[in-house]
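U., I forgot to send this yesterday:
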Amino acid sequence: MNFLKKYKVILLIVIPVVILVLMRAFSTNHFMNDARKLAEPSFSGSNIITSDKLSQLEGEKLLVILGKDTKSIEAKTDRTIRISPDSILVKENMKILRNHEGPVLLKSSDNAVSVRIWMLLSQMGIRDLFIVAEESEPEVLKYKFRPDTAVRPEL
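Result:
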């Protein structure tokens, strides 16, 4: 009993801190922690698919048109939904994406929007997620790289 009286203030601080640390450690995190594993499809280009290769995907395909896309490939997919990019994380939209069995295809008139949404949904744990692109390698350098000769690195 003497021990409790002596260390009462310390115990009142340490016990809640330990409880909060344990709650944080065992809680579910909505985002993946392994950045290297998450970014691997981007580096290899396996997350990008052209519209002519859609038939190679197995399962029911869900096409998510982000924003106002004028050119769509709805005929080659089983289901199509139109979602605004700013409302992709709305509970109803996330429920549709999580409950879908098969590949989810992201299509937008701007590939940058599709890539951002792909990264966000990948972090949220959505699997079998692809970006539909017009070209097979949209990030290919079209010009020869020439370093700036006016800038001198500091010695």
